[in-house]
Amino acid sequence: MGLRLKHALLALLLVVLAGCTSAAASGPPPTGGELRIAMSAGNIPFPSTPPNEGYEGYRFVGNNIYDGLTRLNLDQSTTLPTPQPSLAESWTTSKDLTTWTFKLRQGVHFHDGTAFDADAVIFQFDRLRTKTSPYYDSKSAASAAAAFRYFKSWRKVDARTVQITTTQPYAWLVWDLAGIFFPSPAVVKKYGNDNYNQHASGTGPFRMTKYVDGEEMELTRNDNYWGGRVKLGRIVLYPQPEPASRLSMLQSGEVDWAEVPSPDSVQQLRNEHYQIEMGKYPHGIMPRFNLFRTPFKDNLKLRQALNYALDRQGTAALLNNVGYPATEYVYDGNPSYTKATQGYSYDVAKAKQLLAEAGYQPGQLTITMAYPTGGSGNMYPDTMMQKLQADFAAIGVHTNLRPLEWNTIISIGLDGLNAKQWSDIDILWASPAAGMIPTGYSATFFCNRPGGLPNAAGLCDPKIDAALTAASQQSDVASQYRYLQQMMDVALKNAYFLFWMHDLNLRVLSPKVHGYVQPQSWWVDFTQITVEED
């Protein structure tokens, strides 16, 4: 091989590597230790705004690299977290709940050293909402659309004040703002939207110091963080979609934190003095019926039949009780929970009767259900789906299982089950943060999504729309939840979902990890964690 060819190949290799990683390994971790995490995601979340890979992307990447104008108080476990000041140190609203004015925190800088101010807020809003903006990002805009549902206009009042006007009275704007992150405008302008992920720069407690797509991300403490220097020195993220792989990495000492490892390993891990973290929080497995067409459109009894056919206790037992049966969309104890209508129990005889009343004899109905092989917050899909298939077979319904990659499931939720390529799916797996934030209901329960698109599963009930809209317009929190309970009651009576399981948020930590709080949320506060250094 000639010298010139060698040099050319070397140059090409360097270009490829530069496109895969933002920095080389950073050496020994700073004081506070290094927390290595085996994620359930199939890939490292893109550090975009918002990140991908579902709420696991928010948990490990979004909330560490970035801040929103508000932030959930995840440093406690006694109550559902609520929005608190973050990049906005205070706010006021008009009496009619349509005009919100935010005072921005002073002295905040992005990781690249540039200042955060009102211009940075307007830049990001335009980047996600204004198609004529030179920096409009169509991919991020689609992912962030739900958070902007009620935005009408926004403007800079002065360098540290922004004002947002909503399309209708809207009490939940501060919830939406917790998930709208702010990148450095200078970095976006320098690298463009297509290359931004390799150079992500926010204002958060950690800065991205290494990113190898599909393999690893390294987040190092931001020593100049406006909220004060956090304790933990570094976070290293590894995508491991298989529970057995996460368990193996934990037991071999490769990681200090494993998301949802194999459930049958819990007692062994407890005996080995690992920290076993579980507890009720807003997350369930609530598959969605395709209501655009038969067999589930306008067939309440069929939807009820399948809900009664589910042996939820049996599913929980298979999972070593790291989840528990769902009687409705949210768990008992969540403020949106309704006791007005009794939830679904396991009743094979009733399921068979309802199946016949729905127009089907045993063996006549075959349905297709799409589900993920892993990914953020999906518990143990393969085991659960085999049990579901057996439960439905017991009443004479055959189920074709269609395993898909997690981001494909998310794409189906964006495209809708009326899209030609997905229209043959009868039931779509869903793992919502059921009741974590009230704004989270909008994309799933409303007749229409942002932009006028129909509900992704075809759900459209005027009573639900009226209750959810009324809830969002109440300044009194108790009144908000009374309307949400009405909404849940309608959803339950009409069996709009396959109410299946609630998760207990199993994660296992090394004994070397200290200061962790298990919140009632999908998201986590990493600012108080430390890891014993070897």
UniProtKB/TrEMBL annotation:
PROSITE patterns: PROKAR_LIPOPROTEIN (PS51257)
A GO CC annotation given for this chain: periplasmic space
GO biological process, one term: peptide transport
Record keyword Ubl conjugation present: no
SUPFAM superfamilies the record matches: Periplasmic binding protein-like II
Signal peptide: 1-25
UniProt GO MF annotations: peptide transmembrane transporter activity
UniProt keywords, alphabetically: Signal
PANTHER family the UniProt entry points to: ABC TRANSPORTER SUBSTRATE-BINDING PROTEIN, PERIPLASMIC BINDING COMPONENT OF ABC TRANSPORTER
Protein name: Peptide/nickel transport system substrate-binding protein
